[in-house]
Amino acid sequence: KRDDFMKLNCSQSKLAEAVTNVQRAVSSKTSLPALEGILIKAYKNQITLCGYDLEIGITTVIDADVITEGEIVVSAKLLGDIVRRLPEENVHIETDDRLITYIFSGQAEYRIVGISSAEYPEIPSFEKTDTLTIQSGLLKNMIKQTLFAISDNISKPIYTGSLFDIEDKIIRIVSVDGYRMALRKEPIDCEENSRFVVPGKALSEILKLVSEEEENTEIILGQRHAIFHIEQYSVFTRLIEGTFLDYKSTIPKENKTQAPVGTREMINSVERMSLLTSEKIQSPIRFTVTEDSIKLSCSTAIGKANDVIKTTVSGEEVEIGFNNRYLLDALRNADTDIVNLQFNGPLTPMKIVPVQGDSFLFLVVPMRLNYEN
Questions:
Q1: Upper half-sphere CA count for residue 44 (Cβ side, 13 Å)
Q2: pLDDT higher than threshold 90 for residue 338
Q3: In sequence order, what are the residues at sequence separation of 6 or more whose Cβ sits closer than 8 angstroms to the Cβ of residue 279?
Q4: Which residues pair with 71 in a beta bridge?
């Protein structure tokens, strides 16, 4: 590792964008000072920037005019704040033998204290077990529609991530938190079957880096780690070990009742009922499903609200209650104008599915209703 006398010129806009993205993997509270920094390596007319918090690592490469090769670790926050405010497009960076890092741009000049790159923990290398390629826009969409149902309960770590289940050329991404489940599936061109659980934190970083483009994202898998190659970024993450729920068996097989509803209309109605609930006042949104409508109502200490959505219901009548937030999360993540609500009695989770195809499935567990009124 060469720490002394790194010298380079690069573009302010490219550097600022790279630092902003890589900075998100940097740990804010750590006992290792080097981990609060970004590792900068300048070799062969390229700079590699790396942020890493021992769980997630984000690296990227930008072109630069490297005069003297070398590497250094600089405070991520300070570097980001400085680079974003530099006055000119050309940035000159150099380091000296005391690890002082000089940043020049136009008339502005900074001198900041660096840390030797020898103190920076390496991102682990791992043996590749498999590689998957998925179109970036599709991956973004799949993560976005399942991320909301990840659990934040650390006592069951396996559910703080999403399961990627690749089987018979179909990829499914599944999240569960005990109260709801979100499942997205799409065909994928992949011969091998595999299952792995990616932490929610890594997925939200991947979501920010993936563009809507036709580009592909490549996923390199190992036993315990994975790397997502997204355009010029690489996101390293450890995978969560453990046994994920047998999600297929939790999906109710039957539908005794089903009703197609306009997604937006249903969201608006549930939001109207939610005005009487709050963090302190929890009360279920009651659905009374009859042959031509769904009546929504909510009754709390502060008042009552009612609404009706007209629809054609097939099957049995049912009365069932839901947590408004879980209901809204699922509805807002359905990407179709009309969804099918499927019920199997008052105590079984409701399914929210598209009217055509089966690209997504959301389950919402009902809340017990009080029948005192």
A1: 2
A2: yes
A3: none
A4: 41
Q: Which residues contact 284 (CB under 8 A, 6 or more apart)?
A: 298, 321, 322, 323, 324, 366, 367, 368, 369
Helix axes 76-84, 12-22, angle to 10 degrees: 150
DSSP 8-state symbol, 123: P
3-state secondary structure of 269: helix
| Among candidate residues 77, 100, 111, 251, the one with its CA nearest the CA of residue 181 | 251
CA 10, CA 23: separation in Å to the nearest integer?
18
Among residues 60, 37, 191, the alpha carbon closest in space to that of 118 is found at: 37
pTM value? Answer: 0.93
Q: Give Cβ neighbours of residue 309 (< 8 Å, ≥ 6 apart).
A: 261, 262, 265, 266, 269, 293, 294, 296
Question: What would the mean pLDDT of 324-344 be, rounded to a whole number?
Answer: 97
Q: What is the mean pLDDT of residues 55-70?
A: 97
> Closest Cα partner for 330 from 165, 197, 184, 207?
184
How is residue 220 written in tokens? 């390199």
3-state secondary structure of 205: helix
Alpha helices in 151-234, H assignment, sequence order: 200-209
Q: What average pLDDT score do residues 77-94 get?
A: 97
Report how far apart, in Å, the C-alpha atoms of 127 and of each of 136, 223, 227, 305 are.
24, 8, 11, 58
Name the CA radius of gyration of the chain, rounded: 25
The C-alpha atoms of residue 257 and residue 313 are separated, in whole angstroms, by 7
Pairing between β-strand 46-52 and β-strand 225-230 as defined by DSSP bridges: unpaired
- 257 DSSP β-pair partners: 315, 343
